[in-house]
Fold this sequence. Notes:
The chain has helices at residues 22-35, 69-72, 76-94; strands at residues 3-8, 14-15, 40-45, 52-57, 60-67. It is of the alpha+beta class and 102 residues long. Strand 4 and strand 5 (60-67) form a beta hairpin.
Amino acid sequence: MVDIKFMNESDGQEFQMTHPKAARVLSDVAAWATQNEFSRVVFWRDAEDAHKLWVQLGDDRLNYWIHDSTFTEGKHDTVEMQMDYARGAQRRSAAGFEKFDK
């Protein structure tokens, strides 16, 4: 079972993604995480821009964010691609290339 959380960067508090269209996207994120062997995915709401959700895969917080409209507008058809990009950011970071990601 994949643990998917939404957290506020400003205070570290968890919040719920309650939009009706988010359920399908969350299901797709869980399926992606299971397929890619991640037991935990956290989306951190940016303290300065509430529309940015920074991605954390496992213990790795990444230099990659997803717009909140992915969830609020139910963009399930693009979330797999976005999660693949996040995994790429994780691999770049592990290889020491995160300093080149801006």
